[in-house]
Amino acid sequence: MKRFIDISFSSIGIILLSPIFLFTILFVFLGDLKSPFYTPLRMGKDLKPFRMIKFRSMSAGADKTGVSSTSSNDSRITSVGKIIRKFKIDELSQLFNVFIGNMSIVGPRPQIIDHVLNKYSDEEKKLLTVRPGITDFSSIVFSDEGEILKLSKDPDTDYNLLIRPWKSRLGLLYIKTRTNKIDLFLILLTIIAIFSKKKALYFLNKLLKKINAPENLVSVSKRENRLKPSTPPGVDNLN
Q1: What backbone torsions phi and psi does residue 164 show, to the nearest 5 degrees?
Q2: Per-residue pLDDT of the chain (239 residues; tens, 9 = 90+)
Q3: Number of folded domains that form the chain
Q4: Is the separation of the CB atoms in 176 and 101 below 8 Å?
């Protein structure tokens, strides 16, 4: 049933969004006459790497700087890229990955291979027992990831201390509680979040309480307080 939902939604989405995709491809290409696509390697289900399809929102070769986390004021983001990121068009292009079968509409976000192999705890590696997705609990909670890292002098370190611990916990919670009904609800909330993050968080928190999520996850997911350094699941001490 989940694969049926993936194929159905990705097919419909690609068809409906094709005009936006074509304009995005055109404007990104005209910006610097470079490929409008960015296809980084990400870790997939059962530790099988795959190429994630994204419209390029940064200058060509930006991935060679060695910085994988991106703040909203990152100088590598192009003028067209700011629009792409604002409306999550670079995430929507992953509908092609869903149609191919190496991603799902809903699932834990795909991660950089090096992070999985060298930083993930055994507990976090359970996230790789399902197909990675375009959206999940954490995608709504941390849809403003770039803003969180905006003033950071070391985005990668701050991502691992402030965001990754909670994204991993929310991803593991999704795996334990996932149903087709929850998947459809998360798709709806993801759309709502584009226009009103506050409303999306409100309904997400009601869902988290309904599925008896741990109180610390419910609290963090409200995004009412400043994020503090934390340890990822399966890790006892901050390094």
Answers
A1: -55, -45
A2: 899 999 999 999 999 999 999 999 999 999 888 999 999 999 999 999 999 999 999 888 777 665 566 666 778 888 898 899 888 898 899 999 999 999 999 999 999 999 899 999 999 999 999 999 999 999 999 988 888 988 888 888 999 999 999 999 999 999 999 999 999 999 999 999 988 999 999 999 999 999 999 999 999 999 999 999 999 999 887 65
A3: 1
A4: no
Give the distance between the most distant pair of CA atoms in the chain: 50
Query: What secondary structure does DSSP assign to 5-33, as a single string?
Result: HHHHHHHHHHHHHHHHHHHHHHHHHHHHS
226 within a domain of the structure (yes/no): no
- pTM, two decimals, is 0.89
> Is 17 among the domain residues?
yes
Q: What is the DSSP letter of 129?
A: G
Cα separation of 94 and 221, whole Å?
25
The range of the structural domain enclosing residue 140 comes to 2-221
- Dihedral of alpha carbons 208, 130, 165, 146, sign: negative
Residue 229 belongs to a domain? no
Please, are residues 210 and 145 in contact by the beta-carbon 8 Å criterion?
A: no
- Distance in angstroms (rounded) separating the CA atoms of residues 218 and 204: 9
Return the half-sphere exposure (C-beta side, CA atoms, 13 A cut-off) of residue 198: 0
What is the Cα–Cα distance from 215 to 126, expressed in whole angstroms? Answer: 21
141: left (phi over 0), alpha (psi -120 to 50) or beta: alpha
* In-domain check, residue 228: no
